[in-house]
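Quarterly update from the structural biology core.
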Amino acid sequence: MTSRPLAAAVLGLWGLGTLVACGASPEAGGGPEDLDAGGRAPTRTANTPQADARTTPQADSEATAPADGRAGADGATRNASQAKPLAGKVVVIDPGHNGGNWRHSREINRQVDVLTKLKACDTTGTSTDDGYTEAAFTWDVSKRLAKRLRKMGAVVKLTRADNTSWGPCITERAAIGNRAGADAAISVHADGAPPSGRGFHIIVPKKINGPVDPVVGDSVRLGRTIRDAFRRGTGLPYSNYLGRNALVARSDLGGLNLSKVPKIFLECGNMRNARDAADFKDGRFRQRIADSLARGLRDYLLH
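Predicted structure, tokenized:
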């Protein structure tokens, strides 16, 4: 995600010791335990760290046949709605960064207006200590998630078409969701925090007197729903270094500030942490992530 200057990021990605952190921000520290419709935190006690038990993902209800077994037009309609529960829904998936960003320093360092500040068009992202990049991770998870959602009947749009190009800018990533009229949008990332940090967190928008204001409440609800599904499906713990109960509200991210549709950023974990990194490099675990996110999106869109 957002990071230190590109030159340092490129060196890190090529093994010279410096990596781009994905979610570090002075505003993000000590995020709320829970959030109201304005992205504000009520006065509540901090959460108790959760156990790191791996849980078995729950069976998907969309494939379940009607209990009464009735045939005919009503039964066929019921079966179709259960097989394609997200028919008519539009989801935009934003795989963080891009595999070719490091080759385009001038383009991605161009400053863009995110309403609360000027920021770089994009960054290179981070990587594990042995070089598995955030861009590759987010691209793989996003493709798996898109496939899962399409099987459930959703119209799915991704903000980039491959992992070899550069960009698009964070402003365009938001615009893609707006043009699609998305019912929900999710930006998939992984953090580059100190190695002692572990676990996932969800970034939700704040009201900024901008286009995101009308959808802050729905975005917070989306964040809570994805958080719960992600925790159940992956067994990963809440972040132990940022946020509270895995929720953080920020007003410095262009992908959120400029969104007119409900949208969140998911930091799936910390790529610099050995345990999180081992999970992320496992294709089976990346499928668990995608399945968990699909269930969370389904829960949000159908309730």
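The chain is about 35% helix and 15% strand.
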